[in-house]
Amino acid sequence: MSVEAALGPLKAAHRRTLREAGVSALHVKQAVAAGRVRAIRRDWIAAIDCNPALERALQVGAALGCVSAAAVHGIWEFTTPGLHVSAGRHASRLVFEPPSWARDRRPLRIQFDGFGPHSGRAQRTKDLREDERLVRRGYIVLRYGSDQVEYDWPTVESTVLSLIAQGRHLW
What we know:
By secondary structure, the protein is an alpha+beta fold. Helices cover 40% and strands 18% of the residues. It is elongated.
């Protein structure tokens, strides 16, 4: 079975799933090298024509959720800004870009950090440098840890909605 065929209807699969389908690690490596598929994170492989929303969710270690999942699975297509995901405590940083109509304005960046990838001093320093770079480019950056999102969501939500109510996301 080819790597592309083993990816299934969503055109993305975990390496373990590919292995169970009889696709060797060597075949996956050759398909990636030939540009027929892409390696996403360490253990996920996606076809070139994989749905961009699904690919983005996989890149950050999350699963599609809500209306984003419904659209990818063909249940219904509902136009809504942003990507809806479900992420565990160990997901990588999730970065939410402003919709296209707001890109010429001062964008608001909200970053959610899972504890595992963001628990060390080196990663924290890297995150702070990235925040600095974004602020210099005119972004408003809000960074929240997984505990804040899980246990203090009202405060996170209130902060974001307050900035939006003040119009600061449009500067």
